[in-house]
Amino acid sequence: MCRFLAYSGEPVFLTDLVCAPTHSLVHQSLHAAEAKTETNGDGFGIGWYGERTDPGLYRDVCPAWSDENLVNLCQQVRARTFFAHVRASTGTATTRANCHPFAHGRHLFMHNGQIGGYSRIKRRIEALIPDTLYDERRGTTDSEAIFLLALANGLAEDPVGAMAQTLSTVRDLMQASGIVEPLRFTAVVTDGDELTAYRWACDGRPPSLYYRETDTGLIVVSEPIDGCREGWHVVPKGGTLQARRGGRVVVTPADAVAVKPRIAA
Q: What is the pTM of this model?
């Protein structure tokens, strides 16, 4: 499983969260504490919002712990909203196009989890993506397919409803194909101002997700970047977190979310 970090608030240097902390995302790329695998070395990526509406994007296939360009870039870039992700592949190729986050227009998306038996239903999922969005597909991951299908289902207008509809469709395809492996979906999407994080799974075992509000803004992480759980809040299993930059954070528990996809808590 992968590890990621999302930030939204007052502009800060990326290095303050991505590189500098004791258990930073760069450290997690080699020594993750709460993932299925300790090493997340199948590439990395960062996406950030600067002076333009659409985000900047830097991704590569080398491990985050060994990329000096990543460190230098993070020391120089200050952003109001940014994503960072270190990848542990669940079966697709280690290529730049398969590294997270994925971008489309003003949106960024990153995912930690998997579609069980994805290779058996990949073609049917991709067939549901409209041509205008499919033309934007660059990689082969289940994560990018979910993102594009969710955009087609209205992600920009309704992040929770569109994602629920998308995962419901995927789950139906899995069941129709007799797939018993789980669908696990811990993910974050943003347009630079509004951020939505999900922690869903059909088997009740979604990957970990935490958040903290600081003096400058909101941090959402796969695991605490200071190596200490004190001061961090857990997004509940089956729950969703939504926040607008500079606004109130709303965490909706599983029993209050109209999750159409039969994704269990």
A: 0.94
